[in-house]
Each structure stands twice: as structure tokens, then as C-alpha cells.
């Protein structure tokens, strides 16, 4: 019996989009371009639209993105009026080839046992002349007849998710390829207050530029997110020369939580210490990656600056000449003054909102 082979689909792939934490879009765009080999088409707050030649599960391995989707449609000219509801409904109904998007999704996320399940998500931020519930209703109306018969709606752990995200004038609609492990990772078993989002820590690690043979330090490790993201890079790059990851915290509970979170990721040197008097030799570290406590976490700004002064003196002592530091802080002006006094050279910075507060991620080079 002869088998007829299916015609191959040689149409270009639809674009993809990644959602990022606000402020790290350019780092995500860099990861998409350099690591994934994608072509970035557009970047907006929290969003990177891109194309790839092939669709493989490499898209799920990105570290600076919170989620990745197949693009169904997008617009950056919403009017903030109820006319947008017609746009949402008609574009959802007419623009995408849903059948093809679903097939591409299944390639990355093969069907699990049982009846296929799906879920619809509608997110909205900004002031609009309609409610999120209205946008969701228009979205669902546009999807009428597009979902294959037999698929079952599910609120939890659905196999396929269709999203509409509205942010000010921008709307993007697509099929989600990632799941929660992209943004939350699997290592993060435990938290401490003010722990970083893994994708933000990954962006800091990327800015640091970790190479073979280097020693990486996080002197105030909290739950160990920066150490974990550094170890993941170290695991990939250590073949050409061991990368040593070291860190510690003044709080014994933070040290314990870090040890739990790093357990499956590999060998790191972890200690309880005071970052104002590090038990490390001078000029022994190649990269410092850290987010010191914010003013809000301490009782007042008066407490923060002496802490920054004392820890920066230690950073300056242990970082080798020519080394680099990536810092995420809320009291950026004070930190900047301290580091400029030490002769450190600012390389780049970007604003990132953390726990509702505006912070600055900055990269510094210590002169060689
Ligand atoms: C913003 S948190 C770091 C969060 C961490 N990056 C994470 O992702 O979990 C700041 C940390 O600095 C620690 N810390 C405060 N003062 C310290 C000191 N003098 N020496 C060492 N650690 C200190 C706190 O215990 C806290 O865990």
C-alpha cells in the first residue's frame, strides 16, 4: 500500500513575539538575535516581535523573556474608544490562519493524553474607553468557529492558550508557546522578600558577559537568583575553563534558601557573610552582579547610603582591574556618585520597575 505524503508547508513562518519584564527588552532582543538567530522586527515596552527561519524548542530556552508566542495579529494604533472592540473582533476572526498557528504550536508542544484543552487570556493595561471584560467578549466573539470541535475549555494547565494583550495603544494576539517554567524556572523552590525575577537576573548576567575561567560574585545573594542564572551560563561555558560562582548574604535564612535553590544547578561557593567585610582576596573576582537592598527594605535612606559606601569599598577591593560590575539599585544617584569617586566607568544603564519601584540596572567597568 502506498502512502501519500502530505504537501510540505514552505510558507514563511508567522512572526513570533516575546513578552519581557519592562526595561529588559533590548537585552531580550540581543538574546533573540545572537543566541536564537532570530531577526527582531519591533521592540516596544515589554514586547519584542521577531522572526526565525525555523521553529524549534530553542525558543523555549531563552532566559530573558517571560513568554513566547506565535503572532496572530498585532496593532499599535488602538484608539482607546469602543471602536477598538470591533477591531479586536474582526481582526481575530479574519487576520490569522488559526489552523496553521495551532499546528505550529503542536510542533513545539506535542499533544498530551486525553481531550485537548485550551484557555483564553485577555490582559489589559492603561486607560481605555471599554472594560477588560468587553475586550475579552470581543476577542471570544472573534474566535467563534476557530477552535476545533472536541477541544475543551479549561482554566488550569490547558494545553493551548490564546492570548490578547492590550497595553496603551498596542495590542498583540497570539498562541502561547512557553509555559510558566520560562518565567519562573524550575530551580526556584523557595523565595525571600525582594527576590528578583529570574528573567531580570538573567539580563544582569547577560550584561556581565561571563566567560571561561572567570570568578563571579554576588555579595548579597538573597534567594540566589543571580547565582542560579550565573551557574546556568557557567554550566554551558565552563568546558573552555571553569567558571566559579560565589555568593553570600548576611541573613542565614537567605543563605539556606539559596542553597536549596542551587541544589540541582551545580557547584557554587556559598557563605554567610557581611558584604562590608568580604572574606575574599583583593583583585580576585572578574564580575560582580548584585542587587543591594532598597531604601524601602531598610528603615530609611540614611541607612542605605552608609551600606552602599561600605559595600562599594569592598567591591572595589575584590574586583580585579578591568573587571565589570552589574548593579540593580533604586538609589541610583547615590550609588553613581560613590562609584564615580572610585574611578569606575559607567558603560550602560536601563530603567527597570521592581516591586512597583523604579530602579536602574547599570553596568560599570573598573579601569584596568
Ligand atoms: C534585594 S535583596 C537581594 C535579592 C536577590 N538578588 C534575589 O534575587 O533573591 C538584598 C539582600 O541583601 C542582603 N543584605 C543586606 N545587608 C547585607 C550585608 N551587609 N551583607 C550581606 N548581605 C546583606 C539582604 O539580606 C537581602 O537578602
List the helices and strands and how they pair.
Elements (H helix, E strand, L loop, with lengths): L15 E4 L5 H10 L4 E6 L2 E5 L15 E9 L7 H12 L3 H11 L8 E9 L6 H11 L9 E2 L6 E8 L2 E7 L3 H5 L13 H11 L6 E4 L6 H13 L6 E6 L2 H11 L6 E4 L12 E6 L10 H18 E11 L2 H10 L3 E10 L2 E9 L3
Parallel strand pairs: 5-6, 5-7, 9-10, 9-12, 10-11, 12-13
Antiparallel strand pairs: 1-3, 1-4, 2-3, 4-8, 7-8, 13-15, 14-15
Helix pairs in contact: 2-4, 6-7, 9-10
This protein binds S-adenosylmethionine.
CATH class label of the largest domain: Alpha Beta
Query: Which H/E pattern describes the elements?
Result: EHEEEHHEHEEEHHEHEHEEHEHEE
Secondary-structure-derived class: alpha/beta
Write out the strand line-up for the largest beta sheet, numbering strands in chain order.
2-3-1-4-8-7-5-6
CATH topology of the largest domain: Rossmann fold
* Overall pLDDT confidence: 93
Number of separate strands: 15
Major sheet: 8 strands, mixed
Give the domain tally: 2
Q: Report the principal-axis shape.
A: elongated
CATH architecture call of the largest domain: 3-Layer(aba) Sandwich
Radius of gyration: 23 Å
Compose a concise summary of this entry.
The chain is an alpha/beta fold and 368 residues long. It has helices at residues 25-34, 83-94, 98-108, 132-142, 180-184, 198-208, 225-237, 252-262, 301-318, 332-341, and strands at 16-19, 39-44, 47-51, 67-75, 117-125, 152-153, 160-167, 170-176, 215-218, 244-249, 269-272, 285-290, 319-329, 345-354, 357-365.
